[in-house]
């Protein structure tokens, strides 16, 4: 019986930890304002200077039609998982050397998580 109590407590702590680590989409939308200079995330909104990011989570990198991606990104083989988005948002040039994206990255890890949560909401 005690073993089940510890398992339940461990599960509860895990759930609480995951919930605390999750991003805040509302704040992510505010942080995305920096990205909105080049990108939009409106479904069907088209591309700007950068590609449309609606539905980017889970999508293969450099896969939207009608956008001229850098050869480095096209050849990266990346699928935009949360882990890859996290690396990209923190430092695009480090993840894909030679990318054309002129963005130094988000310095605050919580901002990165929040933008990822926002992007997940834009499908």
From TrEMBL:
Gene3D superfamilies linked to this entry: Cytochrome c-like domain
Domain Cytochrome c: from-to ranges: 23-123
Listed transmembrane segments: none
Residues annotated as signal peptide: 1-21
UniProt entry keywords in alphabetical sequence: Electron transport, Heme, Iron, Metal-binding, Signal, Transport
Keyword Iron among UniProt keywords: yes
Pfam hit, one: Cytochrom_C
Metal-binding listed as a keyword: yes
Highest taxon in the source lineage: Bacteria
PANTHER family: CYTOCHROME C
The protein's name: Cytochrome c domain-containing protein
Organism the protein comes from: Rhizomicrobium electricum
Organism phylogeny: Bacteria, Pseudomonadati, Pseudomonadota, Alphaproteobacteria, Micropepsales
């Amino acid at each position: 019986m005690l073993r089940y109590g510890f398992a339940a407590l461990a599960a509860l702590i895990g759930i609480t930890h995951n919930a605390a680590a999750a991003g805040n989409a509302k704040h992510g939308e505010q942080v995305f304002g920096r990205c909105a200079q080049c990108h939009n995330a409106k479904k069907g909104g088209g591309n700007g200077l950068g590609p449309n990011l609606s539905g980017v989570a889970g999508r293969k990198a450099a896969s939207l039609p009608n956008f001229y991606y850098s050869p480095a990104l096209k050849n990266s083989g990346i699928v935009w998982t949360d882990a890859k988005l996290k690396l990209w948002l923190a430092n695009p040039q480090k993840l894909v050397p030679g990318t054309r994206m002129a963005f130094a990255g988000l310095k605050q890890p919580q901002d990165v998580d929040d933008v990822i949560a926002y992007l997940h909401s834009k499908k």
